[in-house]
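pinning this so it doesn't scroll away 📌
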Amino acid sequence: QVQLVETGGGLVQAGGSLRLSCAASGSIFSIKSMNWYRQAPGKQRESVASIASGGGTYYADSVKGRFTISRDNAKNTVYLQMNSLKPEDTAVYSCNVRAGAYYTDYWGQGTQVTVSS
């Protein structure tokens, strides 16, 4: 069974920083990509950042230049460094790992990030 455990959410003032971590454990093989999504109240879930097995990265336009995704392959852990946070970054952030021959999606439980103005 695969588990994704996220840590690092919380309350921060605008302009501040937070670092999210997501550690994958269990029978997870051949990770294709590790990804962060977020969902704000009343809005659809959106992709925030992704990092592929080869190291290529993707960022949503709204976070480019402020967020950095990275991964530790030895620990099956993905990080999201969030700087210059804005109130509109407030959301539940969820970790996603896509793995295996069939690109199976695994999800973490989500962690709340609240940015006060």
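📌 and the second one:
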Amino acid sequence: QVQLVESGGGLVQPGGSLRLSCAVSKSNFGFDMYVMGWYRQVPGKQRDLVASITSGSATVYADSVKGRFSISRDNVRKAVYLQMNSLKPEDTAVYYCNTAPRGGLPWGQGTQVTVSS
């Protein structure tokens, strides 16, 4: 079974940066066939897609993160990344990666991002 493993979260001050990573555990998973995305969720709210990237590296961003976040992928390493700059307190959430736009794989544990002074 495919497992998604997110990492790179932490506590950062407003205006700071973080780089999240997501690795796909199964070696024969056809990673490069899928659009991948980063999602985030705060307690009591639905999980929202914030960025997605096709196998050819075309990207789409939610308005709330446009110009601040950058998604990328490495099809050889089966990994997807999220560079987050100019972080705001409202970016605080658990971040997950999955296929986009519907998250068709089993969800990983996510990585907590907390933006606070």
